[in-house]
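lol so apparently i was supposed to do this last week
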Amino acid sequence: MVTEKENRLVTLEEYIIQSQNRFPGATGELSQLLRDIGLAAKIISREVNKAGITNILGLDGSTNVHGEAVKKLDLFADQQLISALDRSLITCMVISEENDGIVKLSSKGGKYIVYLDPLDGSSNIDVNVSIGSIFSVYMREPRFEPTVKESDALQPGVKQVAAGYVLYGSSTIIAYTTGLGVSMFTLDPSIGEFILSEQRIQIPDSGSIYSINEGSYNSWDLGLKKYVKYCQEFDPDTNRPYSARYIGSMVADIHRTLIKGGIFIYPHSKRYPNGKLRLMYECNPLSFIIEQAGGVSTDGEMRIMEKKPASIHQQTPIYIGSKQNVAKVMEFLEEHAAVEADKG
Ligand code: P6P
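anyway here it is w/ 6-O-phosphono-alpha-D-fructofuranose bound
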């Protein structure tokens, strides 16, 4: 018999406060930061869901640091997230895909640094495919320098204090972790609140979905080609052939991988020698989520979250998902690495 109390809806705000109360020494600042992001997510969700009506679709004519055409909603999302973080005066600096350099906020003494991909997968905006926002939070180091500088933000992913994503899909959800498991909330637009839908999420140890842009097949290393062919072979004992699913929005592909298991891969290639996806505001935060759910995330040679960043917009290859699926692709990569080395 579920008592009324157990059945009561828990909002994101209530959940954040309840979680904070488990840390007697907590100052409430990280809680406030997470609430700031939740507020911005509601505002962005409203615009994403009516983009077609308010002609916010389409390009605004500029390009971002990677030379990618920027769509109006990218800028809107960037502005909403940065202003929400600025208002609470606990974040000193934001690094965002939409800004070449660091964005210094009003509070020079703020204890947090936040990386943002304000609207990931924005190439899908005009075709009504799910897109997402990604955030990654670090403590500022060194803590009490008078001025913030880019080098303060060059920290490995293992030093994240929080990370998460917002997925603007058939419903708007937010998933985040502070290192104590992954919690997920669904936006109820009728009351304007994110409602707790799941906590301590666990990714299946193995999955039968592989997710990669096969259009780049010809430029892959031999081991990766062999792995994808392995996924496509018939073997009912290992539930193969696997299903191929690729949305082109990392948040959506990772969310599916978290829930259903399997693997998402964005490898290095001739076009992207260091990989396409950004280490600090795509791969580290989503790796934190997947690792907290019991999965793994590597660049093909080392754990993503242990990479020491050399620059704030650094790119990396990524193999992320269920333990057994990532282990299997690594077997193929290692087996054929010698062949690749010989090719030079
Ligand atoms: P491709 C979106 O532009 C993005 O940054 C990720 O969200 C997505 O996984 C990837 O790039 C898609 O890249 O080369 O397959 O179109």
